[in-house]
Amino acid sequence: MQLDMESREEEPLQAQSQAQSHSSVLSNVRTKKDIAWEHVTQVVDEKGKKAWICNFCQKVIGGGGINRVKKHFVGVKGEVAACPKVSP
Ligand SMILES: [Zn+2]
């Protein structure tokens, strides 16, 4: 019995790595100034914390930042009392 051990060395195909540069254009359009700012007056309470007074109902919204003010406008229940002057 004869064993032919032919070890063929296959030349590795050089994979042509075509570096395709995907120039992804990220359109980062973000308005920094929120519209909610236009309807509130920022004040500082006696504790030095920032608060906002709604220009519509004069409600003082303290703590939570501008998001809390927006919740006042849109009327998120459980978070802050909805503005009676703004109807969503
Ligand atoms: Zn209000």
TrEMBL record:
Residues 1-26 are annotated as: Disordered. Residues 14-24 have a biased composition (Low complexity). It comes from the Eukaryota. InterPro entries: Znf_BED. Keywords: Metal-binding, Zinc, Zinc-finger. Residues 31-88 form the BED-type domain. The keyword Zinc applies. GO terms for molecular function: DNA binding; zinc ion binding. It holds the Pfam family zf-BED. This is BED-type domain-containing protein. It comes from Lactuca sativa (Garden lettuce).
